[in-house]
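Chapter review: from sequence to fold.
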Amino acid sequence: MKLQTKFTLAILAIFTVVAVVMAALTVYEVNTLVIGLAENRVKIYMRAAWEIMDAKITRTRAALEILAQDRPVVDVLAYGGVPDRLRPFLESVRRDQKMDILNVLSPDGKVMLRTRAPYNSGDSLASDPLVRQVLATKQPAAGYIVMDQDRLDVEGSELVERTLAVGGEARGMLAGVAVPVIEDGKLVGIIEMGGLINGATEKVDAIRDAVFANEIYNGKPVGTATIFLDDLRISTNVLDQQGRRAVGTRASKEVADTVLGQGVPWTGSAQVVGTPYLAQYDPIRDPDGKLIGMLYVGELEQKYVDLLRRTLFLNLGVILAGMTLAFLLIYFLVRGIVRPIHALSEATHQLAAGELSHRVDIQRSDEIGDLAQDFDRMGERLQVQRDELERDKQQLTTLSEQLQTTNRNYIEMLGFVTHELKNPLTSAIMGLYTVKDGYLGELNAGQKKSLESVAKSLDYFQDMVRNYLDLSRLEQGQLIAKKRRIDLQAAVVEPALDR
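The token string follows.
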């Protein structure tokens, strides 16, 4: 596997791991951020919803406190006037304030006057949490209370029908205020006024319009609000499948157990009549602190899911684009490093094959450039050395040929000389032995000894001539050497010693 391929695969593997890790972290961070942001927004929406809920009660309290100081009202309660004289005025006040009940009570909590038909009176409301708090503190009391069927019947029979129509239960939740009527520091009566929440839409729609601006997303309302009596929807702008307000439906068991069972808010993703909303449910308590219902505010989860998806795609796209760009930059950087290394490798193969003239064309100012320059210098030195060796070889060849010619001439001359010496030497030896052996007359001892000495020298000379002649023939290829065993002492040592 080539070095560039190894680098590419290694970089690709590293970038893949980094991309997967960054994608996972991005998904986690974006999901946490978006969902956390949505839940925080829902909590803010809930505070705004409570402000809207309490604003109506605050306005009602302010109206009642003014009414409690009205002289005709004070005179009737303090000095025993006829209460019925106040009915037209107080009923107009109730209608102007869009309230369902407005009752005038005696200092002991007994109803003196109702402003709603059938105008029942004489019953005691001392057990009403609002009235009870005023009786105990002589201070205004405001909040939410539950009215059972008997109370609803007394206040007005159509109120029972209204609660049954929106939830199937003859119970109602009243948002009300009770204020004391004081004359000369003495409690002379109580005025209680409130609106039945069952089936009412003013509060929940005010929350939706103020907080969510009645925004629609993909055909669904972005924000919704609901008031529960226990776990029963009695006022809502959540729509069912038929597009009607989903009153009479109930909250999930998980939500009810947390809010109504434990008395703490519940925040999270909830299926609200089949549609997922990021919601918060807050407990609603009466003036005695008893849990009587829940307030819900929710924002369409799909809006955040789409935002999360777009954010993820955008972030992942940026990460992918950035990593792709980084990969390409590193790839070309590695390629710029590996290509000259590959060129050096190819040049090394050419050099090893004997192409000493091969050079690498790498113009760089880094270590690879230094290596390329050193390689070229090495190639130049090797080429110079090879050229010198070629010249030396040529000179040696020429010298060898000259030596061979000289040697051949020497051998030829040696053969010629030895051949020319052979005949007269042979004649001289034959003549010497003729004289020495006495064929020409008797010799004395001195003469014979002298002739024997000469004969030995001539025999040695003859052997030398013969050897040189054999050498000449051997060099010329005319004599073939044959190997044989000899007696070294007899053939070489003793003759040498004799001489």
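Two observations follow directly from the output. The chain has two domains: 1-354, 406-498. The domain at 406-498 is CATH 1.10.287 (Helix Hairpins).
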